[in-house]
Fold this sequence. Notes:
- By secondary structure, this protein is of the alpha/beta class.
- It has ten helices and eight strands.
- Strands 1, 2, 3, 4, 5, 6, 7 and 8 form an eight-stranded mixed β-sheet that branches.
- The longest helix has 17 residues, at 200-216.
- The mean pLDDT is 95.
- The structure holds S-adenosylmethionine.
Amino acid sequence: MTVYTHGHHESVLRSHRWRTAENSAAYLLPHLGPGDSLLDVGAGPGTISADLAQRVGQVTATEVGDNELALSRATVHERGVTNVEFAVADVHNLSFPDDSFDVTHAHQVLQHVGDPVQALREMARVTRPGGIVAARDSDYHAFCWWPRLPELDEWMRLYQAAARANGGEPDAGRRMLSWARAAGLTEVTASSSTWCFATPEDREWWGGMWSDRILESVMAQQLVDTGLATSAELRRISAAWRAWVEAEDGWFSILHGEILCRKPARTH
Length: 268
Ligand SMILES: C[S@@+](CC[C@H](N)C(=O)[O-])C[C@H]1O[C@@H](n2cnc3c(N)ncnc32)[C@H](O)[C@@H]1O
């Protein structure tokens, strides 16, 4: 079984709640229609699900357990969005009949699962013929930033180790096309897009979040418990994130891989 590396600490949710359909699913938006049914797997805090619901007829948001699903539900209800249903489901084994949805979508989920190819097979199974399977994931080794603080290199090394120990693939972005092909999807458009944090506000938000997250999230606990890092090292990394926030020339770019797959229409 894979463990979700980030957990759902407030410092993690702060990052995920910033996400919108525009900044995280732009590659999919031109393909959505007002009558579409859309499955959003691994909805997390549900901000993207709530946005997508404004553009389609019906969204089904899923999460791995009731506690995680409560986070998705809270955002959707807070925003007064009424066309979202909720279900507990593991993307490896979705509890929906074949051909149930016009669109299936996963944002930053495949990097955390044990078998991303099986996940895509399941997403394709529940998508109707002619429908769309869409997924986007970041690629940690492709992140780049300035200034080059050695502690941020250490942060990257530790993150990669923790994510892999949990059965995930932090460099998922570059592998999306390959995973789609392995899942039997033949009509695939692959693309990439980035997030960039360079203004004082963005730096405060992104670097401040990681400064907290490296000390307080389940990943921090995992790093200490497994002996990958000491609390003192994590404190140094946290301080380096604060130094990055304060740097007037601080810049950070996050590459994502995206796949938009058309499920073949039936020919008979
Ligand atoms: C990085 S969060 C992304 C949340 C949301 N899609 C977003 O981008 O804001 C990844 C989510 O995937 C969920 N997840 C992890 N393993 C999963 C699995 N096997 N099936 C479905 N969801 C899973 C986690 O619970 C977590 O909420």
